[in-house]
Design brief:
CATH architecture of the largest domain: 3-Layer(aba) Sandwich
Number of domains: 2
CATH superfamily of the largest domain: Glycogen Phosphorylase B
Radius of gyration: 20 Å
Strand order of the largest sheet: 2-1-3-4-5-6
Number of strands: 12
Strand content: 5-15%
Helix content: 40-55%
Number of helices: 13
Shape: globular
Structural class: alpha/beta
CATH topology of the largest domain: Rossmann fold
Distance between the termini: 19 Å
Largest sheet: 6 strands, parallel
Amino acid sequence: MASIALNARFYAHKPTGMQRYGIEMANRLAGVLDVLRPSASLRGYSGHLWEQAFLPAASGNRLLWSPNNTGPLAVARQVCTMHDIIPVEHPEWFNASFAAWYRWLLPKLTRRAQHLIAVSEFTKQRLVERFGIRPEKITVVWNGVDAQFRPRTDAEIAEVREALNIRSQRYLLSLGSLEPRKNLRRLLAAWGKLRREMPEDLSLVVVGAKGSLQVFRDAAITEIPEGVHFTGYARQEHLPALYSGALALVYPSLYEGFGLPPLEAMACGTPVITSNTTSLPEVTGGAALLIDPLDEDAIAGAMRRLVGDEEMRKRMSALSLAHASKLTWDRTAAQTWKVLEECCHA
């Protein structure tokens, strides 16, 4: 039996950002971890019950690694990967019971755990300032990008466009769950202001499913301008071609602990427009066009600028590829394993 156990509750959820992190790490480290996963799909209270009641006994006296922002309070010999503390800082974006649970859990869990991994310097800073965690108790290990995210051929792009019923060959891309934090309402308003100036064959493609009402409040989208195409949830294998076919990814999120879509887009050579707040300037490494996410005119101006300037798109594409090539899941896994080994023998 491995000396380190993995809290693999993430297998019970549809893979989005944090769950994808867990899966990528498990794929690389499962051979040296005892993977403890639910036997059935668990949602809401049943998931919390499995984690808080079953997991402590299953992990025994071994070091437990909980990679997805949560973990059992009864286990002190535990490393927790913290992606963000959004439910604590912005409870208004979430279902009231979801926010209340994490506002109660996260301060206690982060103080009790043996060590924390933060996915960005920004998240580390928030843990220190909000919960009073000692900086030396937190190691920053950035997320990575999978090798499947690379520039794709015209044929692959066309195939995915057909699968998702995207008729326009030229499009700007928005990707993320339809929840308040992703700021889609302002993006749509900015697109509406810009639409008449844009070429008729250009569209805004919005990829993402509505967030679970058990977790998120409604995104409050009431008006949809012309030229917007909603695809719904897109499978992981569709994403590289979706990114590759876009003139740019527009990602004006209000808060990110890391933000995988901008990095994935960069790995596909796609220019990125994103927010100048939270972790996003750190993650994009000077290769993105940064905007104030609260300013609809700034969002519209950045889209106008990139659509109209092919040379700028080429320069940003080259910068994006160079930056993204430095950040791989293999690198993340190696640095994470180093932390786990050190904590296991502490």
